[in-house]
UniProtKB/TrEMBL annotation:
Role noted for this protein: Catalyzes the interconversion of 2-phosphoglycerate and 3-phosphoglycerate.
UniProt keyword Cell membrane present: no
Keyword set includes Isomerase: yes
Catalytic site positions: 10, 88
Species name: Prosthecomicrobium pneumaticum
Annotated protein name in UniProt: 2,3-bisphosphoglycerate-dependent phosphoglycerate mutase
Pathway as given in its UniProt record: Carbohydrate degradation; glycolysis; pyruvate from D-glyceraldehyde 3-phosphate: step 3/5
GO molecular function (one): phosphoglycerate mutase activity
Subunit (UniProt): Homodimer.
Record-linked NCBIfam families: pgm_1 (TIGR01258), PRK01295.1 (NF002339)
Amino acid sequence: MDRLLVLVRHGQSDWNLKNLFTGWRDPDLTPKGIEEARTAGRRLKALGLSFDIAFTSALTRAQHTLSLILDEVGQPGLETIRDQALNERDYGDLSGLNKDDARARWGEEQVHVWRRSYDVPPPGGESLKDTGARVWPYYIHDILPRVMRGERVVVAAHGNSLRALIMAMEGLSGDEIVKRELDTGVPIVYRLAADTTIAEKNVLKD
């Protein structure tokens, strides 16, 4: 049984390029982001991978990334489940602000704490721990059972929703996961063992 799970952070978005806190705001991909998504699809196709089901968030940049990946692997009509449980972390009052402007307003140290701590949320927003509180149940109830049945699953989501998911899958601590960088448009291919632990992991990048 294959038990394949592929995770992909969306390609570069317009607000990534502009250095803005994005969160639940809904910008689309840049031309670079579109090419990153297509490259991800080509890398998956080169491994001979295809999928039985796809999951993504309720946000355009993740949905567009997934669509481009599925086009490249030759599965443009694949059944896709969209759910805000997989949305990016909500940055609250920081959403839409330039990161440099936020540092000028609240101080570099405070903004760093909001961005890189595990359990300290920005004003009106979510911490990574809060993000995990919605991602983990969704993974356990909706995604993992399909993988364990032998379905090949692809998930296109966001830096922090995927960090929360990877934290659970890899058994990482809060301190460990906040240091984990996820490149845009780079697939992470997992194969799970019969006990749901990771049997194999492959990051598809140059």
